[in-house]
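Tokens in:
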């Protein structure tokens, strides 16, 4: 499972690293609503949430599916404006002006992204014009609460009024907390964007991708980018509707999320975290799957328990577990392939021991894998 971005024929000059205050605000709002995803910013989230005026806190709850359930593309309008240049803007006000330029179908579809995830890759039908899509949007919004249902009904009935409502909400968030945090992180993000741009120009895209995230890789002789994620998707950086281009946007609040905008008819965007806990590179989704499957067998759990205490030979494990040596060898092979067992030779014997470091990291790998 991966998201692919086709970049065949894309000029290096059309790959840019830029800041987006509106995209960063979406992740700041996500952090406020899901602080458990972001332990490094828990203190900021707690203090900020406690300082919000009741009216603003209530309005954030009303539309929280824009940033809690999904990362709505509504916060990256630069990628979808028809006839635009596909570039971010320096200020929140300028990016809100881009948001105003999205047509009603774009605005509504991106705002209701949570109810069309199954058709995200193909575009699907618009809830403004398709009765079935409209009914589904209302049904899923109702399941999230009366405020969300009311917001969705109002959005479908009168998109213009919701545009005004969203713009005011963003402006009030800016005044309440975002302007301050943006002033503090903008310099770090700008420095990262400059550094990645220099890597791209001097050493090429492969080096730049490695610096962005170990979950990104260049494949097919440089014709496409693969993002190792638990979702599937396909995008092209050569879409004739929006022009050629690929945008990378750094984020202070992003970790552990790596977001890929791959909506049809929009410019692809990679929204990546800058900084995070000092941890080893996360395991790939395939390796994570191997490790979880390896640990799912009760005999292999017993092997792990025994080898966690001290290294053992195959024969010793067979005696302890009460099974044959060949059967022990089969289980050890599965654990070794998953990278959970280390071996060392002691004379004529091979000793097997659980890699405690890898197992201790497994919960973090799992969390990063499902949130990436």
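Residues out:
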């Amino acid at each position: 499972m991966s998201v692919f971005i086709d970049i065949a024929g894309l000029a290096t000059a059309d790959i840019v690293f830029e800041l987006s205050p509106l995209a960063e605000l979406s992740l700041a709002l996500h952090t406020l609503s899901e602080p458990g995803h972001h332990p490094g910013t828990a203190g900021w989230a707690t203090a900020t949430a406690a300082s919000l005026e009741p009216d603003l806190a209530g309005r954030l709850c009303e539309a929280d599916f824009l940033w809690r359930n999904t990362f709505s593309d509504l916060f990256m309008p630069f990628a979808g404006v028809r006839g635009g240049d596909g570039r971010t803007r320096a200020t929140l006000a300028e990016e809100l002006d881009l948001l105003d330029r999205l047509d009603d179908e774009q605005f509504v579809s991106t705002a209701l992204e949570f109810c069309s995830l199954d058709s995200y890759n193909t575009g699907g039908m618009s809830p403004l014009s398709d009765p079935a899509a409209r009914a589904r949007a209302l049904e899923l919004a109702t399941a999230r609460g009366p405020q969300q249902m009311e917001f969705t009904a109002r959005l479908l009935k009168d998109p213009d009024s919701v545009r005004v409502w969203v713009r005011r909400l963003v402006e009030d968030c800016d005044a309440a907390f975002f302007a301050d945090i943006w002033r503090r992180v903008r310099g770090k993000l700008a420095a990262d964007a400059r550094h990645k741009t220099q890597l791209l120009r001097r050493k090429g895209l492969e080096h730049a991708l490695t610096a962005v995230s170990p979950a990104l890789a260049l494949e097919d002789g440089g014709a496409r980018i693969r993002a190792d994620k638990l979702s599937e998707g396909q995008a092209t950086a050569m879409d004739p509707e929006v022009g050629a281009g690929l945008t990378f946007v750094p984020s202070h609040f992003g970790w552990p999320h790596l977001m890929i905008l791959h909506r049809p008819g929009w410019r692809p965007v990679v929204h990546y975290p800058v900084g995070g806990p000092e941890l080893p590179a996360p395991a790939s989704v395939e390796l994570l799957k191997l490790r979880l499957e390896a640990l799912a067998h009760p005999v292999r759990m017993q092997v792990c328990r025994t080898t966690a205490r001290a290294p053992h030979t195959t024969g010793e494990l067979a005696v302890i577990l009460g099974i044959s040596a060949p059967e022990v060898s089969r289980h050890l092979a599965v654990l070794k392939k998953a990278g959970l067992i280390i071996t060392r030779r002691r004379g004529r014997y091979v000793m097997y021991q659980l890699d405690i470091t890898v197992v201790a990291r497994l919960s973090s790998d799992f969390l990063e894998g499902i949130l990436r």
